[in-house]
């Protein structure tokens, strides 16, 4: 069985966005599936990470085609303009002034390149995919998004290959959360195009995969006319070798919290920062906080720097170095406002063998995972006072060596990427079934 994995970003591009596709390319071959990857040659990325590229098996053939996408820095600058003009418009309205210029500027940028700037890959990626399907006798195509514009490939390919099994994988739920929290634009027109794009792609896909139960449920309920069997959840996972027992926590004079990942609207640290400022000075002085990763907005950077000498902003590190940092922290810090999606770093945290301190949405899947694995404790991310109490609790407990975590190793082991990909492979093999290559590629 041969699968074409379509992913906009792939190693040596770094960042969390490549890890799902990498794990599929890495472990599907262990389950009797040949993998060919189609990706963008010049995909913008926060960094290059050759250690990730070294994990791609020699048997996996990677095909790259150019994209007309904007460079990473330019996209971030436009997104910043959208945010700043929105703030400026609000301020001008409050002062009773005219708002035409900021509003016009925002509208121009917000309605460009929809559903996202990576739409410029499709004119080259679609014909490249069609050629590969025919030439390589592909049995199944798996398209992983975001970027959500790639979901348009489902309908393009469906018209060319009516019986080809096509899997559409949503690593993030789009219409209820991502479009408002982190998307390039959430203008009315952007939302309209996003809704139409997703509806068409879901209709034409053979199978729709989400990575959280909440996302799978949300997408399925949005399309009651589609059979419920069309929607499944295959969660993300970790690749490290987890410790079977959490090490006992010695009495410590200082406590180190480490956050790994991007700081953006979904992981807005404002309530956490407020909680830290509210700690009694004698407790706060014993806290050390590390942030490893990209900080999207200067606003977030300035807010974090307001914590003074206890904060250390280390910037973006290669994946291997970021995972190594897990071993040198006392607690892993998790911040999420998202009630549906689960950041990929949650699973790396599970595999890291350190206790997790989480400020999260109480109705989200992250809470379920933490309680299921007993790998950490949480507070409502909307409640700075609850976060403050949680921080005070762990600092005081650590000082007296009374802090003990006993995670459920058997449950955590289910989230290893090798185990998850084995289940994924079984799904794909059932989809292909008796479909012949003559039918697929004609």
UniProtKB/TrEMBL annotation:
Keywords: Transferase
Presence of the UniProt keyword Transmembrane helix in the record: no
Residue intervals of the Glycosyltransferase subfamily 4-like N-terminal domain: 20-237
Molecular-function annotations in GO: glycosyltransferase activity
Gene3D superfamilies documented for this protein: Glycogen Phosphorylase B
Pfam families registered for this protein in UniProt: Glyco_trans_4_4
Coiled coil ranges: none
Protein name: Glycosyltransferase family 4 protein
Organism: Terriglobus albidus
